[in-house]
Amino acid sequence: MPCVNRRDFLKASAVAGAAVSLREFSLGAERVVVAPNAAPSWTDKPMRWAQLTLVEDDPGTFDLNFWLDYFARTKSDAVCLSGGGCVAYYPTKIPFHHRSAWLGDRDVLGELIAGCRKLGMVVIARTDPHATYDDAEAAHPDWIHVNADGKRRRHWASPEMWVTCGLGPYNFDFMTEVKREIMTAYRVDGIFINRWDGSGMCYCEHCRKNFRDASGRDLPRTNNPQDPARRAHILWKQERLFALWQHWDAAVRAINADSCVIPNAGGGATSSLDMKRIGELAPTLMADHQARRGVMPPWGNGMRGKEFRATMGRKPIVGIFSVGLEEPYRWKDSVQSAAEIRLWAIDGVANGLRPWFTKFAGSVNDPRWLKPVEDLYRWCAANERYLRNERPLARVALVYSQQSAWFHSGEGARRHLDDAMDGWYHALIEARIPFEMVHDRLLDAEHLAAFKTLILPNTVALSDAQCAQLRAFVARGGGLVATYETSLYDEWGVRRKDFGLADLFGVSFAGKTEGPMRNAYLRLEHDMARGHPLLRGLEDAPRIIHGVHRVEVTAREKFPAPALTHIPSYPDLPMEKVFTKTPRTDIPQVFLREGVGAGAGGRVAYFPWDIDRTFWEILSPDHGKLLANAVAWATNEPAPVTVAGPGILDITLWQQKGSLTVHLVNFTNPMMMKGPIRETIPVGAQQVRVRLPDGLRAKAVRLLVANTTPKSRADGSWLEVTVPAIAEHEVVAIDV
Ligand SMILES: [Zn+2]
After folding, report:
1. How far away, in angstroms, is 411 Cα from ligand 1 center?
2. Cis omega before residue 59 (within 30°)?
């Protein structure tokens, strides 16, 4: 993604009134990066976070000692406590900083901080700047968010309040004073900033002027990312937010050099903020994906861990989970089932997230969450050394592309991309292939060194430079699996004449796409491609369902034995007409190439249709097999861990100082796709076969949940372990 070259941005904006083309802004290498400040000394210490988000009437009612006791019992080693912004929980002196009406002469923030410090916890204060009151609005009308109709915006949920502008003086000035006051009074370890990035499109006087100064344009009135003003705004808003983050960070560090601000960052791949830049700036970060909603498998939490790790590397990443429901009706005072809370949280832990529970309100209306979270945290504390991961050992990586999401246009475009990603994610989980995620602007040799295979899930928007990086990866012997319109657009979402990766795919774009297709099929060419690993598990299937969208291509070279060919759509009604006149074509629907590139030469599999998106929609096991087989074929080496046995498990493989771990999270449950989980359904014996990195030998093996020593057997550099059963989660820990 697009990060605007700040110099060019300023240069362009200096030309008064001139129309600015984004083509003048470069993406990437020569961008001016403000060197990130050093990480505060505490960031790598906490492994178990607690958050108590106070509500305004808490100071009159809540039981301080209950919470301090709970923090101690859960062995939480860090805490986030409500400080100010919307409501101040301490005797603030800043005008328009609203003290809790229940505060009296108490200093609730100070009391909580003192108690938590006695427990040895890292303490950060939470601020929330997204809403304010009538007195602030009357004195500073320009602090308030303005709608497209020019009217200042009342808060959607608390209509006595006003929504603030995230990009103007309310945040840059007022909230900076709030942070200074909190840091001066309490010298907390950091300040967490919630809902700091505005509440949608603001048309206030500051946004209008600042955007015009920067881009020469009026604020956009369309969401079409191909509109020049919208495109400029996508980039400009990020510039403002990164500037705000750094402004706040400098302000608190000037008071306490061993602190920082921590902006809440929910999105990951779907974020409107550039994750690559976040990865450069943030010493630690909280992935805010608190619980399931709608149709969402339990791997949604682990996915955030992978997305954040792609740009954060080894920096500590914390996963916020809620004890309550996260559905659109926002029952913020609710409690989920114990099994649901725990499975969501533990999949984060299995994927490298340090857990952070969040509780809204100091009063406990429903105590059912307390024990499950306490049990989970105590287990995490007892096994801390096996959760301090040094690196994942997965060899496969799924690429995510924020620029594709930002700039790809058209009806359903964004959804199509998300569904392709989810389809791959689910297929890899079902196939029990451990994998990581990679950011599409970190495709350099260093970031890809750990991986044998990259997956491009309809990664539509890729620059020429990114295509060159992928070409180099394959030339070094890497495998590539790509689908549908991958690389058919440049980094701005503008369609190319041909795929940027046409040479790797061995095919060119023939000028059109087809879809939605109904009643179309794939013929499995067992005669021509007998025994091909792509068709493994489908030996008895002469044909299977096709996808829904396909792109027409022309081969640039000979593909003599295609494994899949196209059977075009034919009528699905009346039933008498449901037969095809073309049961066979010679149109390949997968292109497999070996020895690609100048060097060692890797393998490339390209599906010119939406197999991944269709898999997410239909979940056909035939498509699942093709996806898994394509990855295994492209990778062309034994997987670093295999797990044989019943059920659906999320499998992750890690190295720590002095050990390896294999996490097995059991998703086998009738509520797997849509929670809440009612009960854990245990699965039976699993045969785990793990390869020890070169030079390492197993000294001891332990199952960390069952707390037993399993049967194990060494076989050269491989270790075989029998896990007798898994309830919610098991960890095979191998001391080396
Ligand atoms: Zn504004």
Report:
1. 28
2. no
* Cβ atoms 596, 603 nearer than 8 A: yes
Residues 192 and 242: their CA atoms lie apart, in Å, by 15
d(CA 115, CA 137): 36
Which runs of E-coded beta strand occur in 197-353? Answer: 261-263, 285-288, 317-322
Cα 211 to averaged position of ligand 1 atoms, centre (Å): 10
Can you say how many angstroms the Cα of residue 486 is from the centroid of all Cα atoms in its chain? 20
Residue 146 Cα to ligand 1 middle (Å): 7
Distance of alpha carbon 422 from alpha carbon 601, whole angstroms: 29
- The rounded Å distance from CA 162 to ligand 1 centre is 13
**DSSP-derived secondary structure letter, 60:** H
Mean per-residue pLDDT for 538-545?
A: 97
Cα 472 to middle of ligand 1, angstroms: 44
> Are 570 and 581 a contacting pair, CB within 8 Å?
yes
- Residue 123 CA from chain centroid, whole number: 26
Written in H, E and C, the secondary structure of 573-625 is CCHHHCCCCCCCCCCECCEEEEEECCCCCEEEEEECECHHHHHHHHCCHHHHH
Whose tokens are 């399931």? That residue is: 292
d(C-alpha 411, C-alpha 423), whole Å: 20
pLDDT tens profile 463-514: 999 999 999 999 999 999 999 999 999 999 999 999 999 999 999 999 999 9
CA–centroid distance, residue 14 to ligand 1 (Å) = 21
What Å distances lie between residue 44 and 48, 315, 340, 637, CA to CA? 11, 8, 28, 35
**SS3 breakdown of the chain: % helix, strand, coil, rounded to 5?**
30, 25, 45
From ligand 1's centre to the CA of 157, what distance in Å?
Answer: 20
Whether 34 shows a pLDDT value over 80: the answer reads no
CB 370 within 8 A of CB 338: no
Least confident of 14-28, 179-193, 314-328, 698-712: 14-28
The CA distance from 410 to 417, in Å, is 12
482: enclosing H helix or E strand? strand 479-483
**What is the C-alpha separation between 211 and 218, in angstroms, rounded?**
7
Q: Kind and range of the H or E element at 686?
A: strand 686-691
Distance CA 713, CA 253 (A): 53
> 208 in helix, strand or coil?
helix
pLDDT value at residue 14: 33
Pairing verdict, β 435-439 and 396-400 = parallel
Cβ atoms of 736 and 692 within 8 Å: the answer is yes
Q: Is-above-0.85 flag for pTM?
A: yes
Provide the token pair at 710. 């399993």
CA distance 370 to 373: 6
**Residue 150 Cα to ligand 1 middle (Å):** 11
Measured at the CA of 36, the angle between CA 33 and CA 38, to 5 degrees, comes to 160
Written as one string, the DSSP assignment of 119-179 is: TT-EEEEEEE-SEE-HHHHHH-GGGB-B-TTSPBPBPSSSTTSEEBPTTSHIIIIIHHHHH
Query: What is the crossing angle of helices 205-215 and 6-14, to 10°?
Result: 100
Distance 278 CA to ligand 1 centre (A): 22
Q: How far is the CA of 144 from the centre of ligand 1 (A)?
A: 7
Cα angle 261-47-451, degrees, rounded to a multiple of 5:
90
Strand, coil or helix: 197: coil
Residue 427 has pLDDT above 70, yes or no: yes
Ligand 1 mean position to 207 CA, how many Å?
4
The CA angle 12-16-21, to the nearest 5 degrees, is: 40
Name the average pLDDT for the chain: 93
Which residue in 736, 734, 732 sits closest to 703, CA to CA? Answer: 732
